[in-house]
Amino acid sequence: MAAGSMMQTHGDFDVALTKYRVAAASTPESAPLWNNIAMCFFGKKKYVAAISCLKRAVYLAPFDWKVQYNLGLVHLTMQQYASAFHYLSAAINIRPKMGELYMLLAVALTHLEDEQNARRAYEQAVLLDQ
């Protein structure tokens, strides 16, 4: 898994996926592994595959804020703002002191035309990440 992570960091998603396939054979119930596989698909702009892998990761580790965050990020990218709101809200409940989560939530709320709550989320993001 470490080799795949290094390849992923350098943007070589195909090689990383190959390494992760080997890791999945021995540890198929690893949420971090499925999260990494998903983000490789995200890097390749294969968003449906990314969501599928992230949903498996969230099933395995429902309280992992990174998986919730990544699901929110992928849904934002796909312009599925209600779904992005759902997963980003879950990530904020798990990790309430991270300003970036509030910023992404504000983006989703802006697209959902909830200006008042979007403004509150932006203000919270600024408050946390000065």
Write the layout of secondary structure elements.
Layout: H1 2-9, H2 13-26, H3 31-43, H4 47-60, H5 65-77, H6 81-94, H7 99-111, H8 115-128
Helix pairs in contact: 1-2, 2-3, 3-4, 3-5, 4-5, 5-6, 5-7, 6-7, 7-8
Structural commentary:
The relative contact order is 0.09. The longest helix is centred in the N-terminal third of the chain and has 14 residues, at 13-26. The protein has helices at 2-9, 13-26, 31-43, 47-60, 65-77, 81-94, 99-111, 115-128. The model has no long low-confidence stretch (mean pLDDT 96). It is built from 8 helices and no strands. Helix content is 79%, strand content 0%. With 130 residues, it is an all-alpha fold. Helix 1 packs antiparallel against helix 2 (13-26).
Which regions contain 5 or more consecutive residues with pLDDT less than 50?
none
Number of strands: 0
Order of helices and strands: HHHHHHHH
Largest sheet: none
Overall form: elongated
Please report the number of helical segments: 8
Please tell me how large the radius of gyration is. 15 Å
Overall mean pLDDT: 96
N-to-C CA distance:
35 Å
**Portion of residues within helices:** over 70%
Task: Please report which band the strand proportion falls in: under 5%, 5-15%, 15-25%, 25-35%, 35-45% or over 45%.
Answer: under 5%
What structural class results from the helix and strand content?
mainly alpha
